[in-house]
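As the next step, I selected for study a record pairing a protein sequence with its backbone structure tokens, which the following lines show:
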Amino acid sequence: GQSYVLRVQLADRALNARTTDFAFIYDASTPSISITLPNKPFHNVPISITGSAVDLSPGVVAQVQLRISTATQDWTGTAWTNTVPTWINVTGGLSPNWTYTSTPAWVNAQSYTITAVSSDAAHNVSNPIATYAFIYDTSHSTQSITWPQSNARVRDLQTEQVRGLAGAAAPSVLKKVEVRVKRLGSNPAYWEPVGTNNFNTV
């Protein structure tokens, strides 16, 4: 990060002299790069790609490039291509934060890998590069109650209170199953299994 001035002086045999100064910065530091969005393994709404790129002063981030990839293709910024790798230049502000909005139409159940790299004015390249993989998932999980059956009359809820099925189509992953019990009638209430262990009125 040190600045230097290189002075060149020329003179001919008639002692005509000329002096020229060349200023430059010696910069061997590499910039950093990170991806802040996507930020979870599954996304269910369209997203832009965002991140940050920083270089130590007096270094300056000069370029941020992205790869948006599936298992077989890369995004060019306007279409998918079989030419791999294909890098996209991010435009606009680069440091400390950058945003890329010309993303593809994300496809349900498709896996994507985002790769980002930055370089500075001295052509130092970020090391390591940043990578984040996610699945775009807009499919809904399925669920059903198999016991008690709808409108059934039950006299024993001690042995087994409720039974059902739940699932999610691959590559989705079922995260949790929640059950809520509501007492109907003139005094409706919800069952609170934690704390009161009783029905709490609405």
User: Anything to note?
Assistant: The first strand starts at residue 2 and ends at 11. The chain is about 0% helix and 45% strand. The two ends are 66 Å apart (CA to CA). The mean pLDDT is 89.
